[in-house]
Amino acid sequence: MSQLRPSRLIHVGNVVVDVVLNVHELPPKGGDVVASSSFITPGGGFNVMVAAVRQGLSAVYGGVLGIGPFGSLAATGMAEAGITVVSPQETSTDTGFVVCLIDASGERTFVTTPGAEATLTYRHLLAIGPTPADVVYISGYSLVYPTNRDAILQWLSGLSADVMVVFDPGPLIADIPDHGRSKLLNRANWITCNAREAHTFTGITDPENSAIQLARMASHQQVVVRDGSNGCVLVTPGERPRRISGFSVHAVDTNGAGDAHTGAFLAALMEGANPVYAARWANAAAALAVIHRGPATSPTRAEVASWIGHDTK
Question: Which one of 35, 107, 193, 311 is separated from 128 by 20 to 30 angstroms, measured CA to CA?
Answer without folding.
Answer: 193
